[in-house]
Amino acid sequence: MASWTDGRRAVLSSSSPPASQQGPWRWLLLILAAAALLLGVQITVAPLQPPGGGVQVLDKAQVMLDTDGGSVYEGTVDLARRWDGDHPGQGGRATYRIALAPHAQAQPMALLFSRVGNQVEVRVNGGLIQHWGELGDPEFDAAKHPVMAALPAALLRADRPNELRVDVTIQPQRLGGLSVVLYGPRDEVEAIYDSNRRWRELAMLVFAVGLLGTGVFTGVLWVRQRLPMYGWFGLGALLGMMRIIERAWPDAPLPWPWLGALAAICYMAHMALMCRFSVLATGPAPRAVDRSIDIAIVASSVLAMASFATRKPMLLTLGLAVLVPMSLASLWTVARRAWKGGEARAWLLAGALLASIAAGVHDLLAIRLSNASGLHNTWLQHAMFAFVPITGWLIAERYSRTAAGFQSLNADLARRVEEREQQLHAAFEILREQQHHQTVSNERQRIMREIHDGVGSQLVALLNMVARPGAQPQALREQVQHALDEMRMAVDSLQPANDDLATVLATLRYRLQPRLEAAGIGVVWDVAELPELRELSPQVVMHVQRILLETFTNVLKHAGATRIVVRARMSEDGTLVTLQIADNGVGFGAASAAAGRRRGGRGLDNMRSRAAAIGAQLHVHAPAEGGVCITLELQVERGESAFSALSQLSG
Asked: Which overall architecture, per CATH, does domain 56-192 show?
């Protein structure tokens, strides 16, 4: 009988690589590698151990073999040997007969086949109890997982041995034939089978989800960032998924041997691309290593296709062997970088490569070349899965570094912004101080010019009149009054208008109302509600006051009017203010024309020039009902606040 514990001892004895004393990360690599290999052992070997009791191990059988090559063999066969080991590259048919002990109890029994295939029929005492696929139909493969067949107690004989007959049809290079069988009470055998199935399903689920999820995620990263390491890992993970699908799908639609060739190519490319990913994850790939990976992928793929096309398994073995030098070159590159740089990622990848190479060499020598039975399981598929958590860790580490870099960049940017804000604030303070001094200087110049041109000219004229013999008191009084008006307007222009034109008009009314009433002239103030106006600077206020004052002065001196109407309106679009002063005087008659030539002509010219200085237009016309109407149109900019609540000014 074959030993069910030898394989487990062999796995455990070689699962841990030599420990290194040069850093904690290498201890972590030891733990990860041992855990990955132990997981593979538990999934594939440990659950098949018979628990003792009534379970028997059947490892011998009488067989009649009929190979595709025409040879026929009858005799005893060791079930621990594989069909493809004894008949490489050949398919055929086989009938296995095993004598089962008499069974007098009512307890049902069961058979657990560690591997049987590829299409199978199981009979006990001539009765068919189970079949997997149809004999000779290559679209089904029962050799991918252990299978169980229940034996009803009614079919078993109690007085003599029972005959177990297993008929199989086998395709070349498909791991067919019959391996070691467990026989015992159904409850015990079923417990072993269920445990093994759970472990296998868990392994398939973990491998499939891990490879698919990581492969898709790294593929998305490659699309977004175009980093080659992500692209190669994503492609390699998806190729590894093809191997899992082929192992888990007994009736895959692709016919044999194309399915076998495709699965072999995907699996070998998966291993090669994991090596390329490991090298790129630690730095640029050396040209020699990169070229060796390309050569290994092409050579192993060609050998795999040739192996299945010519039915020569040794070519597939040679294709697997081609990957070993390429893997060692990749390991040397990664290990050297880990030794020089001491980065955790390099040590992790070096450990994963070392474990994968060790597992691959074990599978190549101890299983494939030695023709070991179905009880011996490959290690490489479990060691290769270590790249999945390592890749997840690398992505997380890269994200953490990127996030830390962004935080550092943001902190540096915030510091620079703060420094620049301080510089701008200091520059703004200097500029504001300069603007303040410039504004004060401009305002002084304006006041000096207004006093010189206004009050000064009036005082000079008054001085000339006083120096003249026989000066009229009334003329002197008027000249003094003009000088006072000029001085008052200069003072009023300095008062804050608060962007309120109505206030300017009200101040002017306050100044002129006594003189107008003393002259017997009634004033009607028809000022609508006006909004705040941004452009009412002291210079604008002064020009508006002088235009209006000149108008009132002309009315007092020349119009002979008894009534003046003052109107102020804002246009509907809020961009034009219209000021209008109309009197009921004599208008532009003969008498007034002579006066206009003496004074009014120059007065109107001054008013127009002042209007142009503030961007306004001045219109003078004579209404049909008599008198003169002067209109000032001022373009304005609306303020942002609400309309000012102005009182209606009425006489």
From this structure: Sandwich (2.60)
Same fold across 56-192 and 498-651: no
Domain 498-651 homologous superfamily, CATH: Histidine kinase-like ATPase, C-terminal domain (3.30.565.10)
Listed residue (315, 313, 327, 390) closest to 360, CA to CA: 327
Helix (H, G, I), strand (E, B) or coil at 243: helix
- In 3D, which of 99, 93, 101 has the Cα closest to residue 74? 93
Compute the distance between CA of residue 379 and CA of residue 37 in angstroms, rounded to an integer. Answer: 7
Phi, psi values for residue 66, rounded to 5°: -135, 100
Q: Any idea where the domains of the chain sit in the sequence?
A: 6-14+21-49+200-401, 56-192, 498-651
Return d(Cα 466, Cα 483) in angstroms, integer.
14
CA dihedral angle for residue 28, residue 29, residue 32, residue 35, rounded to 10 degrees: -100
- The answer, yes or no, to whether residue 335 has pLDDT greater than 90, is yes
Dist. CA 57–CA 189, nearest whole Å: 11
Is 333 a residue whose pLDDT tops 90? yes
CB within 8 Å of 509: residues ≥ 6 apart = 523, 525, 566, 649
Q: Are 565 and 582 in contact (CB under 8 A)?
A: yes
Q: Tokens in use for 98?
A: 């095993």
Position of tokens 């050396």?
286
CA gap 83, 173 in Å, rounded: 9
CB 166 within 8 Å of CB 118: no
Interatomic CA distance for residues 378 and 360, integer angstroms:
8
Task: Just give the CATH number of 6-14+21-49+200-401.
Answer: 1.20.1070
Pairwise CA distance, residues 567 & 581, whole Å: 7
Secondary structure percentages of the chain, helix, strand, coil, to 5: 60, 15, 25
Q: How far apart are CA 360 and CA 353, in angstroms?
A: 10
- Distance separating alpha carbons of residues 283 and 170, to the nearest angstrom: 47
Kindly report which listed range (178-187, 221-230, 245-254, 490-499) carries the lowest average pLDDT score.
490-499
In 3D space, the residue among 88, 86, 84, 150 whose CA is nearest the CA of residue 117 turns out to be 84
Lowest-confidence region among 13-27, 345-359, 371-385, 542-556: 13-27
